[in-house]
Amino acid sequence: MSEPASLWRRPATPDAINARMPGTTPGLLGIRITAVTEAGLEAEMPVDERHIQPAGILHGGVSVVLSETLGSLAATCASPPGQMVVGLEVNANHLAVVPKGQVVTATCRPLHVGRSTQVWQTEIRRADGKLACVSRLTAAVMDPPSKG
């Protein structure tokens, strides 16, 4: 019996991915990849003054940033070297509030990994494990623009 093909087409480790974060939106928000598994990516993010809306809870737009970050990173790692990935659509359902002071965890898994499109779903959970947000990113896999 042969081994199943790996999801990942490019080498990826949490340390290598996190090293690219400083000075970017994910880095400024404190998003940190905690695991690269055969099934997807895992991350965590604190919920502090950078992440809340005026009511003192996690801003829905920040949840979308976390989801799009994980989906884009995963799609890139699952694409052939030399290809680039761009987001086409992202949606999110916010299911539970997350108060300031918690750390959310996120798990991103593929729904579809095709040659030209990919769909990734991210579940964001509160510290108590309750599902706070579920989001889906559709990405296009394409040749990079020509330099000319």
TrEMBL record:
Coiled coil regions in record: none
Keyword Chloroplast among UniProt keywords: no
Keywords: Hydrolase
Region (Disordered), start-end ranges: 1-21
InterPro entries xrefs: HotDog_dom_sf, PAAI_dom, Thioestr_dom
Span of domain Thioesterase: 56-133
Pfam families: 4HBT
Family: Belongs to the thioesterase PaaI family.
This protein's name: Hotdog fold thioesterase
Species the sequence originates in: Plastoroseomonas hellenica
